[in-house]
Every structure is written in structure tokens, then in C-alpha cells.
Design goal:
Layout (H helix, E strand, L loop, with lengths): L1 H8 L7 H11 L26 H16 L3 H4 L5 H12 L19 H21 L1 H20 L5 H24 L3 H17 L3 H17 L3 H14 L6 H18 L2 H16 L15 H14 L3 H9 L7 H17 L3 H14 L6 H17 L3 H10 L3 H11 L1
């Protein structure tokens, strides 16, 4: 306890909810009077609501970063809110113009475009780690960086143009935090980050980024089985930036809608959306695309199509698209596509090839720390269980049992 108090006095940490409450009670003061950020008081800062103003957006995202670092169980284990998806998309759609920037004339540091560029470069580094090693690998380190360094910039002094650039860049960083949280299985937390990123993108005046954030929210909603919400979010993204959308962004929005429609069993609408995605991508000009969307290329579009055809049980077409979905540069995306390819082979009746490809996926994903990857394997495992006993499966099980991620998938199935 003495070490804990010394840490508070030296400014190395702040009391958590439990000890902060004890201090407030003992001293007869409120947490606010003691300068304590008690995020969970009333649970308001942890709610998934859409912030009402730029000031509220900055305050809320900073509180969310701090609560995340404190590992609040109620936050880490929270479930997404369906009404929050509706509220965020509607409020963004009806507020097309960014609100006036909050006045920043306080005692914080003077912030320039070089500082914004530093945030962008650092976030790009975390994005590379996420892509190569999975969301669980460096998620906590990203949140530490945002909470301890980026929050200082948000409280600084900057011009209108620098402030817009800063908010847009912080939106992109918070979007990455959302993806990493989603990949780690913290779905309620991820939704909160997505929504905060959307508001920051609005205030940063970056409607293209905001559309991509809604598309990412659609991706998560499909993963969680909220297919109608997923389709609506993808359509809202397309509608909301129709005047400034690039071909690649439109392709992504159509692909996300197709993923949701495939899960509802609407084959015709799914194929129509996939056709629109392909057509849009064929018209792209890489020089006109935002840097952060360039990953969505022919291989990525093929991967989305492979998911769709697997889900509507067109196994041969799923195989065809999955074989064209390997980029060779995005480890986790290639892992997903490889598992889908394995699943499609099994659905098509080629069990031996499906098991061989699944072993390739396990080798590919050996360094990935991702709850989402484990979920893909757990779904594939269910497919194998439905096949029944065979010597091919016995051989596969023996080899797969040497892989950490396969053991995690088995453990998940047993819970």
C-alpha cells in the first residue's frame, strides 16, 4: 500500500475506482475535487453513445483510453449495443458539416503539423504490428501511447487547420484501436472505439474516413451475427459519402454489404453487391485514394467474395475466389482467406485437400495473437466434426495438435 501511495504522489499512476473511492470517503471530498478521473461513476463515460460535441468527443475518448488501461472488467467484457450502431450512423448522417473547433488556448503544448505527422507515423507502426502479429500483440501499447502522448496534444494549443488534421489523425488511430480490440475479442470496447473514431473523423472534416469507420462497424456486426445492422451500416457508409467516395471505398462498402447479405441467405442481393464491388474496384485510380484504404485491393475483394460464397454454400466458387485472395503481404488476411479456402474444400467434398490447406493456415498463423483467428478455426473445427471419423481427420488432428492456435480453438469449443 505504501508503494501504491508513493506512486500516486510521484505522478506515476492514479488511484483506480476502488482506492479512489476510499480516498474520497476518507477525506470527505468528491473524486472530482481530488482530481481523480472516476470513469465508471454512473458508467456514463463508458457508454457507447455518440458524443454531442467536439469537446465531448475529446473528453470521452481520453476517458475511454484511461479506463481501457485500467482493465475495467465491465468494459473489457461488455457486449455491443445495437441501438448505439443506429444512433451513431444516423447522427453522423444528419451532421454533414464539422462543428466549430473547440477553443484551445490553454497551458498545453503548442501543436503543429509535425506533431500530427508523428502521431500518424507511430500509428502506422502499430498497424503493421497488428497486421503481422494480431490485435492482441500490441493493443495495450497502442492505448498507452494514445493516453499518455496523444491526449497531451489534444489538450494543446493549435490553429483551426492543425486541429482538424489532429482530430482526423486521432480518429484514424482510434479506428486502429477499435480493430485491435475487435480482433482481441473485446467487442463492446471495440464498438465504443469505432463510435468515438466516427465522431472524431466528423470533427476532423474527413468524411471518407468516417465512411470507412462505418464500414468497419459493419464488419464487426456481421462477425457478431447482427446481419441486418451490418447491411444497414454498410449502406449508411455508402450514402453518407456518396459525393466524395472513391472507387475503392465504394468497393469496400459493397463488399461489406455482400458479407452481411450472404449471412442472411439472400443470394441474389449478395451477388449483386459483389458485382458492384468488383465494378467499383476496376475503376480505381490509386493516386486518388486515401493511403489507409489502399490495402483493399483485388486480393482483399476476392477474400470477401470467398467468404460470401462459402456462407451461401457455393463451395466451388468459394474455392476459386479464396485461391485468388492471398496477398503475400498481409499475414492475418491471408490466414483468414486460407481457412476459408480449407472450409470451402471440405464443403466441396475434398476433405484431404481441406485438411492440407488448414495446416498451411496454422503454419501461417503461428505468430498471430488474435481471438478472431481462433474463432475462424473453431468454426472450421465444427465443419470437421460434422464430417465424422476418418483416417484423414485423425492425421490432421495429430498434426494440428502441435499448434497453439488449434488448441485454443479446441478449448473454445469445450467451454
Amino acid at each position: 500500500m505504501k508503494r501504491r501511495i508513493a506512486s500516486w504522489e510521484n505522478g506515476h499512476s492514479t488511484p483506480d475506482e476502488f482506492y479512489g473511492g476510499l480516498l474520497a470517503t476518507a477525506l470527505g471530498r468528491s473524486p472530482a475535487e481530488l482530481g481523480l478521473a472516476m470513469e465508471s461513476d454512473g458508467q456514463q463515460p463508458l457508454s457507447p453513445g455518440y458524443p454531442a460535441s467536439p469537446e465531448a468527443a475529446v473528453t470521452t475518448v481520453e476517458q475511454l483510453w484511461r479506463a481501457d488501461l485500467r482493465d475495467y472488467e465491465s468494459l473489457m467484457d461488455s457486449e455491443p449495443s445495437e441501438p448505439a450502431w443506429d444512433e451513431a450512423s444516423v447522427r453522423w448522417l444528419v451532421a454533414p458539416e464539422p462543428a466549430p473547433m473547440p477553443s484551445q488556448g490553454g497551458a498545453g503544448p503548442r501543436v503543429g503539423l509535425a506533431d500530427v505527422a508523428t502521431v500518424k507515423t507511430t500509428s502506422d507502426m502499430f498497424a503493421q504490428l497488428d497486421d503481422r502479429f494480431g490485435g492482441e500483440h500490441a493493443r495495450h501499447a497502442l492505448i498507452q501511447y494514445l493516453s499518455r502522448h496523444v491526449a497531451t496534444l489534444l489538450a494543446g494549443q493549435y490553429t483551426e487547420s492543425v486541429g482538424r488534421a489532429l482530430l482526423a489523425t486521432v480518429a484514424e488511430s482510434t479506428l486502429l484501436a477499435a480493430w485491435m480490440s475487435y480482433d482481441s475479442g473485446h467487442h463492446g470496447l471495440a464498438q465504443r472505439y469505432f463510435i468515438q473514431a466516427l465522431r472524431l473523423a466528423q470533427d476532423g472534416g474527413d468524411r471518407r474516413l468516417a465512411g470507412s469507420i462505418l464500414s468497419a462497424m459493419s464488419h464487426q456486426a456481421t462477425f457478431l451475427g447482427r446481419f441486418d445492422h451490418a447491411a444497414t451500416l454498410a449502406r449508411a457508409a455508402r450514402m453518407g459519402i456518396s459525393g466524395v467516395a472513391t472507387p475503392t471505398l465504394n468497393a469496400q462498402f459493397h463488399a461489406m454489404e455482400a458479407r452481411a447479405l450472404a449471412r442472411t441467405g439472400d443470394n441474389r442481393a449478395c451477388e449483386l453487391a459483389l458485382s458492384e464491388a468488383t465494378r467499383a474496384l476496376d475503376g480505381r485510380n490509386s493516386g486518388d485514394e486515401p493511403e489507409w484504404i489502399t490495402y483493399f485491393d483485388d486480393a482483399e475483394c476476392a477474400a470477401e467474395a470467398a467468404h460470401c460464397f462459402r456462407d451461401v454454400d457455393h463451395a466451388r466458387r468459394a474455392v476459386e475466389h479464396a485461391e485468388n485472395a492471398m496477398s503475400g503481404t498481409h499475414v492475418r488476411s491471408d490466414f483468414f482467406a486460407t481457412v476459408v479456402l480449407a472450409d470451402a474444400h471440405v464443403r466441396a467434398g475434398d476433405l484431404e485437400e481441406g485438411c492440407r490447406v488448414a495446416l498451411d493456415a496454422l503454419d501461417l498463423g503461428a505468430q498471430l495473437k488474435s481471438a478472431r483467428c481462433v474463432s475462424y478455426l473453431a468454426e472450421f473445427r465444427q465443419r470437421l466434426v460434422a464430417v465424422g471419423q476418418s483416417s484423414v481427420l485423425d492425421d490432421f488432428q495429430e498434426q494440428a495438435g502441435e499448434h497453439r492456435m488449434w488448441l485454443a480453438a479446441e478449448h473454445r469449443a469445450e467451454r
